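Researcher: Quick sanity check before group meeting.
Model: Go ahead. Protein one:
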Amino acid sequence: MKKTILALCVAAIPLVSTGAEYVTEGSWQVKKEENKMTDMTDVVAINRSPDVYMRQGIERSTSIVLRCREGKTDAYLSVDEYMGIDDPLITIRFDGGKPQKRRWSAAEGGEAAFSPKAISFIKDIS
């Protein structure tokens, strides 16, 4: 019973400090926080596209999100609409290069798609 209570208490401890603010670095909004459970720095970087599009009469936007949390790196595309539960085919074009189609993993809520090779993707865009 004591182990169960201890586990519940530990699970209730916030994993990151509060109050971290996003800072603008070029076209990115970046937030860095110390993870209190791992003493590692968690980082989230968001690049919101200045281009918006209309779908069903609603203005929508797209963002690229890069995240390193607890030593795991993610890169995903976040959109303001439901893409479905199947892994979407994402078209990417770097600078003046040829557009490339890549299959990404659908997020649970259907409004994001994760790069299967986050670190390679980050290197491609840097």
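Researcher: Fine. The other one?
Model: Protein two, sequence then structure:
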Amino acid sequence: MQVTVLIQMINNEKIRKFRKGIMIAFAVIALIVGIMLILNSFNDVFGRLRKLASTGYF
């Protein structure tokens, strides 16, 4: 009886750590995607500014 309870507790801990790892992985992926999207939008803005500068608006 005690052994099975211990095994269940260990399994629960493993599952918790696994879930935490998945959550962290998702957070990291979301962060990277967000940074990439922000950089892309910055590149668009800078590209437009360069086009404006090259046409002589400034």
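Researcher: One line on it for the slide.
Model: The mean pLDDT is 89.
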